[in-house]
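Hey,
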Amino acid sequence: MPQHTPIWSRILASPLLALLLAVVLTASSASTPVVAQGDRLQVMVSFSVLADVVRNVAGDAADVETLIPLGANPHSYEPSAQDVVRLSTADAVFIIGLNFEERLQKVVYEAAEGTVYELWGCLPIRPVLAGLSHEHEGEDEHAEDEQVSATPAGGPGIAGSSLDTLCADHWATVRAAFGLDDLRTPGAVTRDDAEYLEVLGMADPHVWTDPVNVALWTLMIRDMLSAEDPAHADVYAANAAAYVGQLTALHADLSAQFAALPAERRYLVTNHESFSYLAARYGLTVVGVVLPGGGTASEPSVQELLTLIETVRQYDVPAVFTETTVSDSLAQQIAEETGAKLIQLYTGSLSQAGGPTDTYLNYMRYNAAQIVQALQ
């Protein structure tokens, strides 16, 4: 395994907090990789949604590749030997972290020769199954290996006051752009909250369904690319500013769309808990999920299925939302029992180029339109 050391060791703070609250900025050598003059930065990104955001910041200054193929389930994707080779040749690797890439994350740290970045350090985090009661709660597959995410091999990353300073700057920029006093997705906590460590151990990693979080991502990615490739820092800064502007327009559009839904039509049942950030941001409530535990590997018990059927009837939920990357066989059973429609959304993957969700912005607008139409 490559030896990983913090790339910003000059601003490390409390070692205890560093171990618990790493942004996970680690490198395979004692110094920050520097892109040679005339070379293009080679960036590998775990899955297509995040890759599109990275491409918008990188522009023409870097080459960005996606590791997990379109249409594959990021929770269960098994890396190939070729993936290991690709990871070893990248200057930087971007992943969600929080154990979202469940079967990939460990391989990333073992194979990557360049810097590994996890994109959660500045974000407000919601717990898995917030507000729902399940037999499987506490057995979440995302929480099992939390130490993989929070304690990277060989180095603690950035934490404490240094992380506070970096994130405060990003929050101020996004607050001004979005016109929001508080950027937190409702129900989410930040490092300032007493329960943050507890929530971190059962965090819902699907943070990107709130565009405000993606704006924070954008600024984090800007800084990370600039650290790898200082010669193009101005390009990354300009691209990031332009993309934050597009994200504010997206947020305004989604706010208007969801505002049209009456109160009694704001209840969601989804295949797994992949839209809780979107629901919380725009005033919807996830009253049930088919697959318990926050990921896609667990199946519900018979009692849980019966309870979910009763929930659909109780809230008069007109649709159960399935996804392109996960089987909908159990959702079909619920639809047959309740008369609810099945509406397929994109969750862990964009569509092919030219498809309805070939960019993050299109992905969010498409999913929002499908939800609103189905719930009306």
